[in-house]
Design brief:
Blueprint (H helix, E strand, L loop, with lengths): L13 H8 L2 H7 L8 E6 L8 H15 L3 E6 L5 H9 L7 E6 L1 H19 L16 E6 L5 H7 L4 H9 L4 E10 L2 E6 L2 E5 H10 L7 H13 L3 E9 L18 H4 L17 E4 L2 E14 L23 E7 L3 H9 L13 E13 L7 H6 L1 H14 L12 E3 L2 E2 L5 E12 L20
The protein binds adenosine-5'-triphosphate (ATP).
Adenosine-5'-triphosphate (ATP) binds next to helix 5.
């Protein structure tokens, strides 16, 4: 759509075309939706993506809000975490029916953190306590995509089109969404709504952060480099399987060879043994414990679909059923790992490999084998002690000369400062102005970018 034009976008759902076809202003005002917002707090990141956030808002979104008689308070952020801190401490949230984020995934994460933390403060809930049940946020969040990575918008709306998102806000759509809390012992670290990845995706992010100057190309370069280095990491994964009517991660997927996961139905039988890895698995109470060597440990709380991977990391992951799909990719050959990665880009089942296991869980923990040192990041920070410790690890680590013994966790595109983590899914903690993804739309938009 041309800048400043009010022509309907080709990406809009059919229902919106009919709204816009009628003589715009009167038609929009006539939409009688009981959940329509009347007052919104808007945060714009002027530096997200191609730095067009303000332009996109002023030309494409503000006119739609104005026609729908929505009043707005607009804050153009002046630094990283401005929006998060403002939401957490200052914003008079009683005045608003929703918060709008104009930016990319990083900006959404800021706003989600601000809103969730503020809600817990007001409800007297201690975020550092894993046991405390978090209080759901009352205000909905709208995402106007204006970043270089707009994966959350893509996965919840089905397109990366600012006008489509604006119309979802105007008509008052509501899509609940699960949020994972991530702790290290008794310390709250971060919230996650899309991907928590250790090993491959952690290493790609760590490497790509050093190459920020390259722009979005850094993700491809770091991806190839990480694939070629082929590091695996030892550790223990424990999880509480999901219960009830939540389906399985293999729903709607064709399993061509009838793997063990498909043949077994009860969740506590889902533990499979991988013969060529030094690992074992057993059940302790309701927790399932798996030890082994992993190329990747991923927890997908949504499909993580994007144009490059139209089905996403976990195609049947739900946005709001209180679970996350835990995908364990065990040590395997480079060629097998490549086959697994390539299946994310076509219609083959990426879980149909002997070295891949997938579980739908409501909580999980990870402990790296060499836990004494918290992370590579810490090692870099204390170079002298770090070098000493790393050489000690290498002497003890049979398989390597000086391969790092630990990866980092990629938490929705941010590196976590700890590797030993506990994760709990909080069912429907937040709500978005969205409708969830419509079946075919996952395959439609070839122009959006994703860097997961
Ligand atoms: N005014 C600002 N100046 C600098 N950084 C900001 C500002 N406002 C927000 N940020 C930070 O910029 C980061 C990236 O923003 P955003 O997600 O909107 O863009 P992006 O291009 O998708 O970025 P990324 O490459 O991290 O995905 C966010 O993590 C946010 O905290």
């Amino acid at each position: 759509m041309a800048e400043g034009s009010s022509e309907p976008s080709g990406l809009l759902p059919a229902c919106f075309h009919s709204i816009l076809r009628r003589e715009n202003e009167a038609a929009l005002l006539a939409v009688q939706q009981p959940n329509r917002p009347k007052s919104l707090l808007v945060y714009i990141n002027p530096y997200g993506g191609k730095q067009r956030g303000k332009q996109i808002y002023d030309h494409k979104v503000a006119p739609i809000f104005s026609r729908a008689s929505i009043s707005t308070d607009v804050i153009v952020t002046e630094r990283a975490n401005h929006a998060r801190d403002h939401l957490k401490t200052e914003a008079d949230l009683k005045k608003y029916d929703g918060v709008v984020c104009v930016g990319g995934d990083g900006m959404f994460s800021e706003i989600m953190h601000g809103l969730v933390s503020r809600t817990q403060q007001e409800a007297g809930v201690d975020e550092n306590s894993m046991e405390d049940t978090l209080t759901p946020c009352g205000l909905r969040i709208g995402i106007i995509p204006a970043g270089s990575t707009d994966c959350i918008c893509y996965a919840t709306v089905g397109s990366n089109d600012p006008v489509t998102s604006a119309l979802h806000i105007v008509v008052g759509d509501s899509q609940p969404m699960d949020v994972c809390s991530v702790h290290n012992e008794d310390r709250f670290l971060r919230y996650s709504v899309s991907l928590l990845g250790y090993g491959f995706y952690g290493d790609v992010l760590t490497d790509s952060e050093r190459k920020r100057w390259m722009g979005p190309a850094r993700y491809d370069i770091s991806g190839v480099k990480t694939f070629l280095t082929h590091h695996y990491y030892e550790g223990t994964v424990s999880f509480l399987p999901a219960e009830g009517d939540v389906g399985t991660p293999r729903d709607n997927m064709q399993c061509r060879s009838g793997c063990s996961i498909c043949r077994q139905s009860s969740s506590d039988k889902l533990v499979s043994k991988n013969e060529d890895s030094v690992s074992d698995a057993d059940c302790q109470d309701a927790w399932t414990v798996i030890r082994g060597k992993f190329l990747a440990i991923n927890a997908a709380s949504m499909s993580c679909a994007c144009p490059r991977s139209p089905k996403g990391l976990s195609p049947s992951a739900h946005l709001a059923n209180g679970t996350t799909d835990l995908i364990l990719v065990r040590k395997c050959s480079r060629i097998d790992f490549l086959r697994h990665l390539l299946r994310h880009t076509n219609k083959d089942d990426q879980f149909d490999h002997s070295f891949v296991e997938v579980y739908r869980v409501k909580q999980f923990r990870f402990t790296p084998r060499y836990q004494e040192c918290d992370s590579e990041v810490d090692l870099r920070e204390s170079a002298a002690t770090g070098k000493q410790f790393l050489s000690q690890i290498c002497r003890e680590h049979r398989a390597c000369g000086c391969i790092p013994s630990q990866s980092n966790w990629n938490c929705d595109g941010e590196i976590l400062p700890h590797t030993a983590i506990q994760v709990r899914v909080h069912c429907q903690l937040i709500k978005l102005f969205a409708r969830g993804i419509e079946e075919q739309s996952v395959f439609e938009d070839p122009y959006a970018h994703c860097a997961i």
